[in-house]
Write a structure and sequence with these properties.
Transmembrane segments: 20-45, 57-78, 134-153, 159-177, 245-267, 273-296
Structural class: alpha/beta
Distance between the termini: 53 Å
Strand content: 5-15%
Membrane topology: Multi-pass membrane protein
Radius of gyration: 34 Å
Number of domains: 3
Strand order of the largest sheet: 6-9-10-3-11-12
Number of helices: 19
Domain ABC transporter: 308-556
CATH topology of the largest domain: Rossmann fold
GO cellular component, one term: plasma membrane
Main location: membrane
Length: 556
């Protein structure tokens, strides 16, 4: 069932109802007390000042002191509970978005950049969570208005009715005024998230951009994206300014009417001097709840826009559906592709026998990517099938597939931590370190495998990073391991050592090497040639080396 932005907001509030309720109670007590301050001052004037009683004056001063102490305590506690509700709600939403993005079925059909998803999971989640923190203040503003109305009713029926009957239209007008801000805020968040996504992609591919001399094109692209984001932000800022100004003017008119009616009543002798002071004080106090309403309404408008964006992510269909079939345990690792069609792949059919080290040479990078997606069930074929031990992978839950088939992509990232922590993912860590020649990397690092690496392993060279990523994949000891160009940044001597180590470590386990590396292909049991998305040849590396199309892909 799809989730709307309204439901995201409702669930966020419902999840923190206790903290929100406590915050609302305490802040309402604070605003009610604030409204009572001018009333108490009016009583002091009528009973103590006008009567000239020092004792009565002292008593009422003590009452004021107690009132202000209560105001301070209730505000601090209310703000604390409200902030707690906001942060916990934002945290829960971040987890929801994270779970959806990391779901084994993937996120299909959205075309959302990674940076956009980060923005939705951070800034949008924070904006929705903030609604939990501001709602209690909205209730507090209402409480302040009610106390003011009751106090004015006890002084004068016209004044009380004016506040009671005038407040609902004011709130409705505030809601209408907030609509343009909501629309502009949604556009601002979309442009900002897209700019973040472009920036993330550019930073991730910085070395490639420099290698092909595309820095200027990349800068121009980001400049255009950033300018679009800036224009959307300025439009949202103008909407915010218009929203705040309109509400301030509306509030000022309402307060002026209240003060005018109170002044006429005092001039006619219908209320006392103390009541007049209290009425004027309450009229001035009314600025506070209406300012609160302005602030709350603006936050709600932005929260609704962000909630809609979060709902879009939560509603995104999975790239692949679940399944009820199971793979055998332990898996023999017999991989078979039958008449496979997807993207650049055309009627692809081959098999990797249990324990075989199979090489796949793809002349088209898009075909290699589509093949990897189908083998790891990141995507299902348009037609045909991929099976492991005679079980069609499209009938198996993606999380179960990945317990048997591990696909190590060419651009695999490392995590912040030590070299060892990036590799310790399975039972064969020590053997994997040796097979991937990470022991040579360790000798060049200040603390060996205990050396800390930065996010994505950027503190390592390209070759070092590839070897650590390969060791991590080998250490998992998966029944079926699919490797994509794992040594493109490694020198030929090291590559030959890795080829031998990989073949030795994976003996008895099915391994598919999608690569054009002669050193790795020479270590395979068999190679299939995937040219223009079709299987055009099969045999050993030495046998295929005599074909012009194979030589062009591998030996050029």
């Amino acid at each position: 069932m799809s989730t709307t932005g309204r439901e995201v907001l409702r669930r966020s509030i419902a999840g923190q109802r206790r903290s929100v309720a406590l915050a609302a109670l305490l802040t309402s007590s604070h605003q009610g007390g604030e409204a009572l301050v001018p009333v108490v001052i009016g009583v002091v004037i009528d009973q103590a000042v006008a009567g000239g009683s020092v004792g009565t004056l002292l008593v009422w001063l003590v009452v004021l002191a107690v009132l202000f102490a209560a105001l301070s305590t209730s505000y601090r506690l209310g703000a604390r509970f409200g902030e707690r509700a906001a942060e916990r709600a934002a945290h829960d939403l971040r987890l929801d978005v994270g779970r959806r993005v990391l779901h084994p079925g993937g996120v299909g059909g959205s075309g959302t950049l990674a940076g956009e998803l980060v923005s939705i999971g951070t800034s949008d989640a924070k904006r929705v969570g903030t609604v939990n923190g501001v709602l209690p203040f909205g209730f507090a503003g209402l409480a302040g208005l009610l106390v003011s109305a009751v106090a004015l009713l006890t002084m004068s029926l016209p004044l009380g009715l004016l506040v009671l009957l005038g407040t609902p239209p004011m709130l409705y007008l505030a809601h209408l005024i907030g609509k343009p801000l909501e629309r502009r805020s949604e556009a601002e968040q979309e442009r900002s998230a897209f700019a973040s996504g472009v920036a993330t992609d550019l930073v991730a591919g910085l070395r490639v951009l420099k290698g092909v001399g595309a820095e200027r094109a990349a800068v121009d692209r980001y400049r255009r994206t950033s300018q679009d984001s800036l224009r959307a932000t300025l439009r949202a800022a103008r909407a915010q300014a218009w929203h705040n100004g309109a509400l301030l003017a509306l509030t000022g008119i309402f307060i002026a009417v209240v003060a005018l009616v109170g002044g006429n009543l005092a001039a006619a002798g219908d209320i006392s001097v103390g009541d007049l002071v209290a009425a004027v004080g309450l009229a001035q106090y009314l600025i506070t709840p209406f300012t609160i309403f302005s602030w709350v309404n603006g936050e709600l408008a932005q929260g609704r826009a962000s909630a809609a964006r979060i709902a879009d992510v939560l509603n995104a269909p999975p790239a692949v559906d679940g399944g009820d079939a199971t793979l055998p345990v332990p898996a023999a690792g017999h991989v078979k592709l039958s008449a496979l069609n997807r993207g650049a792949l055309r009627d692809v059919a081959f098999e990797a026998r249990p324990g075989e080290l199979l090489g796949v040479v793809a002349t088209d990078p898009a075909a290699a990517t589509d093949l990897l997606d189908c083998l790891g069930r990141a995507a299902d074929p348009a037609s045909g099938s991929v099976s492991v031990d005679s079980v069609d992978l499209s009938t198996v839950d993606p999380s179960r597939v990945r317990e048997v088939v591990l696909v190590a992509a060419h651009d695999a990232d490392l995590f912040a931590g030590t070299v060892a922590e990036n590799i310790e993912t399975g039972p064969k860590t020590a053997e994997a370190i040796s097979a991937a020649a990470v022991d040579e990397v360790a000798t060049a690092l200040p603390d060996g495998v205990a050396t800390a690496v930065t996010e994505r392993g950027r503190s390592l060279s390209g070759g070092q990073r590839q070897r650590v990523a390969l060791a991590r994949a080998l250490a998992a000891d998966a029944p079926v391991l699919v490797l994509h160009d794992p040594t493109t940044a490694v020198d030929t001597v090291t590559e030959a050592r890795i080829a031998a180590g990989l073949a030795e470590l994976r003996r008895g386990r099915t391994t598919i090497l999608v690569t054009t590396s002669p050193a790795l292909l020479a270590a395979t049991d068999r190679v299939v040639l995937l040219d223009d998305g079709r299987i055009t040849g099969e045999g050993s590396h030495a046998e295929l080396a005599g074909r012009p199309d194979y030589r062009a892909a591998v030996l050029s």
